Amino acid sequence: MELLTYFQNRRSVRSYTGAPVPEEAVNQILQAGMLSASGKALRPWEFIVVRNKETLRALAECRKPAAKMLQDADCAIVVLGDEARSDVWVEDCSVVMANMHLMADGLGVGSCWVQGRLREASAGGSSEAFVRKLLGFPEHLRLEAILTLGMPVQRPEPHCLEKLPTEKIHRETY
């Protein structure tokens, strides 16, 4: 498959069948994240893989207005960044999320990016504080996002290249 086709096919999937995501697929998704580009090759990221159903249900409350797809996900990958290690941890962790999102789709696994940084939990307080309390990650790490994983109920239609907002492209000057 041509790389651009992977980009076209990658869609956020929020409805899952309940079938398990194979462990080999989870490992390949994690490998795609770890192979991400990183400023000065510092790799300021850490991952928490969550497969426990009770924890996934609790994690669904990490975001207001909603991260409800976590309730039915088979797995979630929490992406954390070490801001003391790199001043571009946000960008580096975003590349990780994008790579894992694309890899999941390439493997036929549905995924959805749940933004955590600068977001509020359903019951109030920050999403980061909520997830830290639930998963126990250290204070020096910051929450970037959570990637939900599950076998999709259906595959959304690919993006249409002809419908891309090409008016946003400027050449030479604005």
Automatic annotation (TrEMBL):
Coiled coil: none
Statement: the UniProt record of this protein carries the keyword Oxidoreductase: yes
Pfam families from the UniProt entry: Nitroreductase (PF00881)
CDD domains in the cross-refs: nitroreductase
Domain of life the protein comes from: Bacteria
Cofactor(s) essential for the protein: FMN
A GO MF label: oxidoreductase activity
InterPro entries: Nitroreductase, Nitroreductase-like
Protein's UniProt keywords contain Signal: no
Domain Nitroreductase: 9-61, 64-150
Keywords: Flavoprotein, FMN, Oxidoreductase
Similarity comment: family membership: Belongs to the nitroreductase family.
Record protein name field: Nitroreductase domain-containing protein
